[in-house]
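The methods section describes the discrete structure representation at length, but only in general terms. Since the whole study asks how a given chain folds, the encoding of that fold should be made plain. An entry of this sort, consisting of the sequence and the corresponding backbone structure tokens, reads as follows:

. . .
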Amino acid sequence: MLKRCLLPALVLATCFSCATTGQTKQAALHYKLGLARWESGQYQQAYVQFRKALEDRSDYKQAWNALGCIYMKWDDERGAEDAFTKAIDIDPDYSGAYNNRCLLEYRLKKYERAVSDCKQALSNPLYQTPENAFFNLGLAYYKLGKYELAVNAFRQATIRMDDFYPAYYQLALAYNAEADYGDAATALQLAVRLDPRFRGDMAKAQDAFQKGEGIPVGKEETPSLMQIFNY
């Protein structure tokens, strides 16, 4: 289960060297409207609003990051990478854009680059949602066959957010890959307990995954997940 591309809430900075106060307020308004359209799944309308925000203020890093997420929805990898990179160029400490670019690179199977960007996201001590970057970092390590590092990353995600059930599913898979079957079973039990679809009902979860319903991880990982139910 991949974390979706993440957008920050409305951010109003106190000073912008290249924008008047009127431009700043107008850009913020367009960004707010874009977020509302994004949340309701109106991606074309969201795109228009984020573009308008950038017309008012070309250094609006959150709008560039948002455009990257729109491009990912549209499977425009080049557009997404360019937009995330512009956001990072504006603010080299912009963890949200690094994390989203990490997710993009994971989808493109550029796992080493994904690791690098997730680490960049986590290097900022002021990053408010590090669990997302730890989760994506774990996904990349898992694909690279670096299971111990994947375990550590997923564990850090659960430490930052103890009800982060997708991380427990992935942690179970990483433990399983290391032949640590007891910890794999424990992690899976925690995931099913925290998953609001099952609330601890292991039989219900096993039946759903067996049928391909509500698979919390990639379909290629489902057989491994099913093995863990039997531990």
Q: What stands out?
A: The chain has three domains: 21-92, 95-146, 163-231.
